[in-house]
Write a structure and sequence with these properties.
Layout: H1 3-11, E1 31-32, E2 41-49, E3 55-60, H2 63-66, E4 82-84, E5 86-91, E6 94-102, E7 108-116, E8 119-124, E9 127-129, E10 138-140, E11 155-158, E12 178-179, E13 182-183, E14 185-186, E15 201-202, H3 207-212, H4 214-220, E16 224-227, E17 231-232, E18 243-247, H5 273-280, H6 282-301, E19 305-310, H7 381-394, E20 403-406, H8 416-433, E21 438-441, E22 458-459, H9 462-474, H10 491-502, H11 507-512, E23 514-516, H12 525-528, H13 536-539, H14 550-562, E24 566-570, H15 596-611, H16 614-617, E25 619-626, E26 629-635, E27 639-646, E28 652-656, E29 670-679, E30 682-684, E31 688-692, E32 697-701, E33 705-712, E34 714-716, E35 722-724, E36 729-732, E37 749-751
Length: 754
């Protein structure tokens, strides 16, 4: 072949589509602004391999395309919805295409069409496809704003009775009252293991204890506290609220009280004089509310937010609106409860099935629990107004809480339609009272219908965090009720679960989601590392601590601190607390008996999260995965963090394509900094350098280890402006800035020197 023919052949060669290089999501690098309002112009970008495509088109979806009347294949989009994208610049071996669109009043739904010669493919939230998948389109909701403080905030959940006893004078007394047919019990030994029907056992933790430990939380690096319910309630968990307007005096202050506890044989709470005086006395109730004001002020003084637990699907049978225990009956200042009298002003707050007054026990209980009367919103506008008032009250002065966590939020009401209607109103009321308040719901499954900007801000992230990482690292079900060896280290299952479940969350919901390894409803993660199936009543409390693997726990925490969302600690995790599922997961914080190495580790890991802003709002891409191995990156315009985990029992060597995170692959050597690492022996925050070549990092990892790497290729001038490496950045002018060799080469290429 002649030289001329060889040159002509080379000049007309078509490149292969570089599928791995293609990326876009709804973070700030690719959607700017990421939380636009209606009428605002938005820049949308997609990244591809440099010089790899002929054309990129943004496909906007109209209502007909998004909701076709039949199930026929969609292969045509109206031309008016097609927006050509211009190649704006190249950086580190990537082309960045962009266009601008103006937000309407409905969500902007879109995907990308990519052309290379005769090849056409599409890119959506699920990635690259030869088919159009409108159900996986990107989505930007106008006016959907979440509090900026909540993005990646380090949160700390406190089950108050078990955290710290700051005021022994307000402790529940043994025999003070009866709950579920047995007397309550005060546990004198703070370190006593959880036993039996724990709901009636009280260890004495209170709000004063939280205040006393506020400096500890600040030093740990906590940015928000989530308190399990703290309103007047007879149980230790307080999900059976008795009075929404007041802090429980056993958590707050007891100023006045009467003498008298129940005799051993007595189950009648009308005889519980001390309890009645404590929880109905206005002096006690107001003192508790003042203590909560103090707690919030102390937290805010340390830049810590406070989130309350809202239980609005049901209340408790002790509640003054129901008064099944008759402790409010005939008391000055209280109206008759719905259980006591048909003429009660609260009658329509509940659904009764018979007309058996006085003392009608035939009412609707949540899951048929008589201790948990379900609130009957559909039949009572007054009830809805009351709950909205309560929701506004606690996020407004003088209380100034910073948000609500909503218990069993999808269960509220008697129909899905009403549920959504209620939460739309709830959001309006709360955001009107405090625009920076966070609304986070407990929810299992697809929460997308509630996360469209008009109801919840985000969720407790079970589906796109707790469950996938638990299966991958431990093979355990989150209650320790099952062990699945086929899911332990199953990288494919993990990646697909994350891809599927994260695609159901808008970015603002994903970045503010509570990423918990465990909580008050599930076994402690550290216990899951022993692969032991069981519960405390079957196995005993000691077995929850046997054969645990702290190296795996450290891997999990590194993942928690680097994956998108708000890393949320469950009190005591940082001290090495173990436990099976409820109630064993509610052990006391072991003050004076902490696992000091674990505590130091947590503090260092939290510091990594807080030191690198890219971990709060950066894009996320999985770079490599094998059985029991995971490598992913978080990146934005200037910074890259690469996280690698080896959950095997053997040392491994991995070739990591760090170029996919934006690390140059045109340089022979690029320095990355290891800023944190863990293994079986512990952890290290000592900084050391590693080197990648051609965009590949050869990484050697010890058994049961993790590493966090950091890289940036930019500098800042004296004014703080970004200065990219001029060898890595190119800018383009004109609509077709880049052409393949047969279309005119690179004559529009211009190097930027900033």
């Amino acid at each position: 072949m002649s030289v001329e023919r060889r040159i002509d052949y080379i000049m007309h060669m078509r490149p292969l589509l570089d599928k791995e290089a293609i990326f876009s999501d709804e973070t700030e690098l690719f959607v700017t602004p990421s939380e636009p309002d209606a009428g605002e112009r938005v820049r949308i970008r997609i990244r591809t391999a440099r010089g790899n495509l002929d054309a990129v088109t943004l496909i906007r979806l109209d209502e007909q395309v998004m909701h076709p009347e039949d199930d026929s294949h969609i292969d045509y989009v109206p031309p008016a919805q097609r927006v050509s994208m211009s190649l704006a610049f190249s950086r580190s071996g990537f082309d960045y295409y962009e266009t601008w669109v103006t937000m309407g009043h409905r969500p902007l739904q879109y995907y990308f069409e990519l052309r290379l010669g005769t090849v056409i493919c599409y890119y959506d939230r699920f990635g690259l496809s030869r088919d159009i998948r409108t159900e996986h389109a990107f989505s930007v909701v106008p006016g959907f704003h979440t509090p900026e403080w909540a993005r990646g905030a380090v949160m700390y959940q406190i089950f108050v009775d078990r955290f710290c006893n700051g005021d022994p004078d307000n402790d529940v007394c043994s025999d003070e009252y009866s709950y579920i047919e047995q007397h309550v019990h005060h546990v004198d030994d703070w370190y006593q293991p959880i036993t039996g029907m724990d709901v009636r056992n009280f260890y004495g933790g209170d709000l004063q204890g939280v205040i006393d430990k506020m400096d500890y939380l600040a030093d740990l690096g906590i940015e928000a506290i989530y308190l399990n319910p703290i309103f007047v309630s007879p149980s230790n968990h307080k999900y059976d609220i008795q009075d929404y307007d007041h802090i429980d005096p056993h958590f707050g202050k007891i100023v006045t009280e009467s003498e008298g506890v129940l005799d051993e044989w007595d189950q009648d709470n009308t005889h519980a004089a001390r309890y009645i005086s404590r929880v109905t006395g206005l002096d006690n109730l107001e003192a508790g509310n003042r203590l909560f004001i103090q707690l919030v002020e102390e937290a805010h003084r340390r830049n810590i937010k406070v989130i309350l637990d809202g239980v609005f699907n049901h209340c408790g049978s002790f509640n003054k609106w129901m008064d099944r225990e008759r402790i409010y009956e005939g008391k000055e200042g209280f109206q008759p409860g719905a259980f006591v009298s048909r003429e009660s002003p609260y009658h329509d707050y509940f659904r009764f099935y018979s007309d058996q007054w006085p003392y009608n026990d035939d009412f609707d209980g949540w899951w048929n629990h008589k201790t948990l009367p379900k609130l009957n919103y559909e039949d009572s506008q007054r009830l809805k107004n009351e709950i909205y008032r309560i929701a506004r009250k606690w996020v407004s002065p003088p209380y100034n809480a910073d948000g609500w966590r909503l218990d069993v939020a999808a269960d509220l009401g008697h129909s899905a339609e009403y549920n959504h209607e209620f939460w739309r109103g709830f959001r309006r009321e709360v955001k009107r009272a405090n625009p920076e308040a966070l609304i986070v719901a407990e929810h299992y499954g697809d929460a997308a219908p509630w996360l469209q900007g008009d109801q919840w801000d985000t969720v407790m992230n079970y589906d796109a965090f707790m469950e996938p990482i638990t299966w991958f690292l431990t093979g355990m079900e989150k209650h320790s009720d099952a062990y699945r060896e086929d899911l332990l280290g199953n990288d494919y299952s993990f990646c697909e679960a994350m891809r599927y479940n994260m695609a159901h969350l808008h970015t603002q919901s994903l970045l503010t989601a509570m990423n918990e390894l465990d909580n008050h409803d599930h076994s402690r993660f550290l216990t899951r590392t022993n692969h032991r199936v069981g519960r405390v009543e079957m196995c005993g409390p000691e077995s929850a601590e046997q054969d645990i693997d702290k190296a795996v726990m450290r891997e999990a925490v590194v993942f928690q601190m680097t994956w998108p969302g708000a890393p949320t600690l469950y009190y005591g995790d940082e001290a090495g607390v173990c436990g099976y599922t409820d109630p064993d997961n509610r052990r006391t914080y072991p003050w004076g008996r902490e696992d000091r190495q674990m505590l130091r580790f947590y503090k260092a890991a939290i510091s990594v999260h807080r030191n690198y802003p890219v971990l709060r709002a950066g894009a996320t891409k999985i770079l490599a995965h094998e059985w029991n191995i995971l490598v992913f990156s978080r990146f934005n315009e200037t910074d890259r963090v690469i996280v690698a985990m080896n959950n095997r029992d053997q040392e491994v060597q991995i070739d990591v394509p760090v170029w996919l995170a934006g690390v140059s692959r045109t340089k022979a050597e690029v320095k990355l900094h290891c800023v944190f690492e863990t293994d079986r022996s512990g952890f290290s925050a000592r900084r050391r350098s590693l080197h990648a070549g051609g965009g590949i990092l050869r990484l050697r990892m010890a058994p049961k280890s993790s590493v966090v790497l950091y890289h940036t290729d930019v500098k800042r001038d004296k004014n703080g402006n970004i200065q990219h490496d001029p060898r890595e950045v190119y800018n383009y002018r004109g609509r077709r800035p880049y052409a393949s060799p047969r279309q005119g080469g690179r004559k529009n290429l211009q190097t930027i020197r900033k």
